[in-house]
């Protein structure tokens, strides 16, 4: 039996669900294909795109991750979306919570539409699915240049929804591969509503992750905490220890065997892996 063709996103329905009185976003566009929604939205930000702009594509050919990693998913098999925020007045040291905020919003959305799938977060913001804890989504936040409509953050998210297991790398999975039949549009709407609510509460608290409740919810959903991890650093160095907690700045607190506790920033690492799974 052949696999049914994926249903394309209905731009009109998405706008009705998410813009104006029904939602907190200000502009939403769907494009058939692009290299990178983050790159496109970055250019729009420089040109003055407003706070709350959303860009969605059916097919992203050069998706971008941390450290210039790239990826491509089969057409219509997932969600590739970027949003633009201009969180004025938020202290710079609190902006690192934005991708972690997105991770919590995504985790909540997946749990809402696919309650039978085991899901959690790997610090700082990868979505892990299934009992084998394989990567089901990635998140990338980038600061915009100080031009156009002022400073801002472009946040990109790529979610594996319908991709069959055989089309994915060994360390990746999808909701379909984990046994969940999920409508992409339903997941996208749920995700963007969660994202808007989370960011609004965080912005109202001036980026304070404790006051907004973000830190507590993040800690509850982070599978890295309480486990032995291997933190791979630039230049080939690494440290192994217990991932104890996430501090108010979003740093991972790692307790080394000698009792020394280190605060690790997401931008300072190459990989975070389970200590007993060096290839995960």
TrEMBL record:
CDD domains assigned: BPL
Gene3D superfamilies referenced in this protein's UniProt entry, alphabetically: 2.30.30.100, Bira Bifunctional Protein, Domain 2 (3.30.930.10)
EC numbers on record: 6.3.4.15
Entry-linked Pfam families: BPL_C, BPL_LplA_LipB
Superkingdom per UniProt: Bacteria
Record-linked InterPro entries: aa-tRNA-synth_II/BPL/LPL, Biotin_CoA_COase_ligase, BPL_C, BPL_LPL_catalytic, Transcriptional_repressor_C
Record-given protein name: biotin--[biotin carboxyl-carrier protein] ligase
Organism listed in the record: Pseudonocardia yuanmonensis
């Amino acid at each position: 039996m052949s696999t049914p063709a994926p249903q394309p996103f209905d731009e009109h329905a998405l706008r009705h669900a998410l813009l104006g009185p029904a939602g907190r976003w200000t502009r939403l566009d769907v494009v058939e294909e692009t290299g990178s929604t983050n790159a496109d939205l970055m250019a729009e930000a420089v040109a003055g795109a407003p706070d709350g702009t959303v860009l969605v594509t059916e097919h992203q050919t050069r998706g971008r991750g941390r450290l210039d990693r790239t990826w491509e998913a089969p057409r219509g098999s997932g969600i590739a979306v970027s949003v633009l925020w201009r969180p004025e007045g938020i202290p710079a040291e609190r902006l690192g919570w934005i991708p972690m905020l997105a991770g919590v919003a995504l985790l909540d959305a997946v749990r809402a539409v696919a309650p039978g799938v085991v899901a959690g977060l790997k610090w700082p913001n990868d979505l892990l699915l299934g009992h084998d804890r394989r990567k089901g989504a990635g998140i990338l936040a980038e600061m915009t240049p100080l031009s156009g409509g002022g400073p801002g953050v472009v946040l990109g998210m790529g979610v594996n929804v319908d991709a069959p297991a055989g089309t994915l790398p060994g360390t990746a999975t999808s909701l379909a591969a984990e046994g969940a039949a999920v409508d992409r549009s339903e997941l996208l709407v749920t995700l963007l509503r969660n994202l808007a609510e989370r960011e609004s509460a965080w912005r109202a608290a001036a980026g304070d992750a404790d006051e907004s409740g973000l830190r507590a919810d993040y800690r509850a959903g982070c599978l890295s905490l309480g486990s032995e991890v291997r933190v791979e650093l630039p230049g080939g160095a690494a440290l192994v220890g217990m991932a104890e907690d996430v501090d108010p700045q979003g740093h991972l607190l790692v307790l080394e065997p000698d009792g020394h506790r280190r605060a690790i920033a997401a931008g300072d690492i190459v990989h975070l892996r389970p200590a007993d799974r060096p290839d995960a």
